[in-house]
Every structure is written in C-alpha cells, then in structure tokens.
Amino acid sequence: MEWGSARFDGRLRVSGRPTSANGASSLHLMWEVPTDEELVEASVTLMVPALPRVPRLYFWALQVSFSGGVGAHLGLQWGADLPRRDRHVNWGGYGASGTELLGGASKLPSSFANPNTRDFDWEPGQRYRLRISRAAEGWAGWVDDTMIRCLDAPGETVRSPMVWSEVFADCDHPAVSACWSQLEILTRSGQRVPINSAIAAYQSRQDGGCDNTSSETDGNAFVQTTNSARTTPAGATLRVD
User: Fold this and answer.
1) CATH numeric code, 26-239
2) CB 121 within 8 A of CB 108
C-alpha cells in the first residue's frame, strides 16, 4: 500500500467498486506519539453518526503493532453477516507469516462462528471506548467495559497506533463517516498521554482505493468520510483542540 502523496494521471476513481485485492478502499490516521517511552496501552473513542445505507461491509478500527513483531485491530463492523445480522465487533490480528493470531474464547456470541468477529449491538450516534491493553491471558481488546477476548501475541509493549476505516462499498455509495476522539496512550511508567495530531493516509488509486475519501477535523474529533471531496492530502498532519 502506498502512503505517500504521489499523483496519478487519468480520471479519478470516484464511482464503482474499489479494485484493490480485497475489494475495499481504506483510509488511515497514524498517531503522532509525543513520547519516547514504551507504550503499554492505546485507546480511542469511536462514534459512527449514521448507519450505512448499502449492504456492504464497513469496518472502523484501532490498530497497534506489538513489540513481538505482529499487529492487531479492534473495532466495530457493519454488514459482516448480512442479512442475518448487521452489527459486530472485531478483535483480531495477523502474525509475521500472514496467519491469523490465535486467542482465547469470547463470551460474546458470533452469528457466523468467527473467533474474531462477535455479535455486538452498537448504536449509531453513541460513543464507544476502544482499548487495547495487556492482560494475564494475553492482549485484551475492550469496548467500554466489555472485554471481547484476549489474543496470543508476543511482546509486552505496543507501538505505531493508528485508526482506520476499511470500506467495501462502491466509491459513489452514500457517504458514511466515523468520528475518532480522545486518542490516548499509556506509557510503561503509568503516564497517560493524549494524542492531538495524526497523519492522514489513503489507499492510493494505483492500489485500488477511491479518490473521494477524506479525513478532516471537527472540534476535538478526527473524522473520516467516504464519498466526499478530499480536503486533506495524503501525508498532511491533522490536529485537534
């Protein structure tokens, strides 16, 4: 995936399906962490103002890498198991070889028996606190006070936190936004550090992404939106109050 601000000739991709290998268009906000201390936790508040209007998968997640060399993502999903069920939470990751990380059992059911994707009746317009932290059984993913499960991932610290939207809808399907606020990391010494800036990144047209996705700020929140004029170029830094 290309994170730079390279220019491409030809028409913009603003309609039809993304042509990426997995059929999605993704946009990322990579946190600017203002400390050199080791990190043991990352958390963020996610709010999706309105549900998508098309039967395609939408995934909004907090992602970290672990010091053991693998990474994982925690977030809310819409459309993962239509028409049986539309809303889920996902906590999973991949090892260095690309295989899915194993983990403990979740107390939440899953409409299609997926160990990573569990049934979770989140509501549009409501704020949910996503948190990734170390527990006795492994790396835990939390949504508010609900622990989804623990992943078996090596390492005692986290790094490279970011949030992203992965959207399997057509580029011209109705716009959907995700609002991210109260970005925070916890250092090994116990210091909680707010994150007030992030670098915008988009899946490039060359890699199959849509040209009409955009990230911007609204007060104290970072907002990612599909089917919207791109007001923030790739590589630009966004800051919140």
Assistant:
1) 2.60.120.200
2) no
Residue extents of the structural domains in the chain: 26-239
Say how far apart CA 189 and CA 193 lie, in whole Å: 11
Q: Which residues contact 109 (CB under 8 A, 6 or more apart)?
A: 118, 119
> What one-character-per-residue DSSP string does 124-179 give?
TT-EEEEEEEEETTEEEEEETTEEEEEE----S-EEEEEEEEEE-S-TTSPP-EEE
**CA 230 – CA 163 distance, rounded (Å):** 18
The Cα–Cα gap between 214 and 232 comes to 6
- Mean pLDDT across 192-197: 98
Cα separation, 190 vs 206, in Å, equals: 42
Across 166-177, average pLDDT: 98
What does the alpha-carbon distance between residue 116 and residue 163 come to, in Å, rounded to a whole number?
Answer: 18
Q: How far apart are CA 105 and CA 4, in angstroms?
A: 39
pTM over 0.85: yes
Going by their DSSP bridges, the two strands 192-194 and 237-239 should be labelled as: unpaired
List the structure tokens of 140: 């835990």
Look up residue 100 and give its DSSP letter: B
Predicted pLDDT at 241: 87
